[in-house]
Design brief:
Blueprint lengths: L6 H7 L18 E7 L3 E7 L11 H7 L3 E9 L2 E7 L7 E2 L2 E2 H18 L3 E8 L2 E8 L2 H13 L24 E6 L9 H9 L3 E8 L1 H5 L7 E3 L6 E3 L3 H24 L3 E6 L4 H16 L1
Parallel strand pairs: 4-7, 4-9, 9-10, 10-13
Antiparallel strand pairs: 1-3, 2-3, 5-6, 7-8, 11-12
């Protein structure tokens, strides 16, 4: 077991499904339920017989009671590939209290990865940093889980986000739709992240963006400091002026609304997570919301 797996977090999420919201082609039986209706394992509903339907799935008891032909439909249970995409650029070193954004990202990925593996899914890890891309392809076995946790623990934020040339081909060869969970603060001084998300949406994978924000950057609360330094560009800016703080708050809210709107327009799920929120509560709320959305 990894040190990243807080027992309180695991107890909070262990019974909640991490299921793909859209139809996902599974490669073996698991605990994730797809939206595919057909001759599966768990009964879903009846529907009227249509010419061309497989007669093996006629329900003769329903015919005896109603004198009509009904097809018994089920939900096919599938296992999926869940890939975790981690922004490991310098801005993820931003701290609020004892946690950095990278710390929070590690705990999120470790907990959701553990849950996905518990449900029988394959998991993979992709870290974007310094014009490079670290890849741990999706697999499903205990040794792979250990590698997943080890690589998460080794991630240290530095440099810039990876440029598109390094990741353009990594998702094009997949023959099935996948669940891709991108964890980032969405900081992109040179528009490095948007092309990635646009490409993922174009490949018709299901994409979830977990947007990490620190409470001190949301409130512009840096008591005792008069300047801030950009962790990626090294640029410094003054923050002592009350007028500057007000302007910052207005621009920040507009930026957050724009990020959410643009992602939703691409059919990308978006959820902002604030780092002062306990991780078990953040994950519980996130997974409960997803559970309701697929019922």
């Amino acid at each position: 077991m990894s040190r990243l797996l807080d027992p309180a977090v695991l107890m909070a999420i262990k019974d909640l499904p991490l299921a793909a919201k859209t139809t996902i082609d599974g490669f073996m039986s698991g605990l994730n339920k797809s939206n595919v209706k057909g001759p599966g394992l768990e009964f879903s509903q009846y529907r009227s017989y249509q010419p061309g339907d497989d007669l093996r799935w006629l329900d003769w008891k329903m015919y005896a009671r109603s004198d009509r032909y009904y097809i018994r439909e089920s939900e096919t249970e599938t296992s999926i590939s869940v890939r975790f995409l981690i922004d490991a650029s310098g801005s993820m070193a931003h701290k609020d209290g004892a946690f950095s954004k990278m710390d929070y990202a590690r705990y999120l990925a470790a907990s959701l990865g553990w849950l996905a593996a518990l449900q029988g899914d394959a998991i993979g890890l992709y870290a974007f940093q310094n014009q490079q891309l670290y890849m741990l392809p999706s697999r499903k076995d205990p040794q792979h889980m250990n590698r997943f946790f080890y690589q998460l623990e080794q991630l240290q934020p530095e440099g810039h986000f990876t440029t598109p040339i390094a990741y353009n081909n990594i998702f094009t060869n997949s023959q099935q739709k996948e669940l891709l969970i991108f964890i980032s603060d969405l900081y992109q001084p040179k528009n490095e992240i948007s092309p990635l998300l646009e490409a993922l949406a174009a490949f018709r994978h299901e994409v979830i963006v977990l947007h990490l924000m620190a409470r001190n950057e949301l409130d512009m609360d840096y008591a005792g400091y008069t300047t801030l330094q950009d962790l990626e560009t090294q640029q410094t800016i003054p923050i002592s002026s009350p007028q500057y703080r007000q302007e910052y708050q207005q621009k920040l809210q507009a930026w957050l609304q724009t990020q959410r709107k643009q992602l939703l327009e691409k059919n990308i799920s978006y959820r902002m997570m604030t780092m002062n929120e306990p991780i078990d509560k953040a994950l519980n709320d996130f997974l409960q919301q997803r559970k309701k959305s697929i019922l």
